[in-house]
Amino acid sequence: MERGEAVYGSICASCHQVEGQGSPPAFPALAGNEQMLP
């Protein structure tokens, strides 16, 4: 889990935000997205 958090923080968070809320419409929310793995 720690490695995934580090990867997300360095690659994904700048667009999808720290909590996964995204910046629609360009960057969709990942938090609560049913298409994402649990």
From TrEMBL:
A Pfam family hit: Cytochrom_C
Molecular functions per Gene Ontology: electron transfer activity; heme binding; metal ion binding
UniProt KW Flavoprotein keyword: no
Region (Disordered): 19-38
Record domain Cytochrome c: where: 1-38
Domain of life: Bacteria
Keyword check for Hydrolase: no
SUPFAM superfamilies: Cytochrome c (SSF46626)
Keyword terms, alphabetized: Heme, Iron, Metal-binding
PROSITE patterns (UniProt xref): CYTC
Name of the protein this chain belongs to: Cytochrome c domain-containing protein
Species this chain originates from: Halomonas chromatireducens
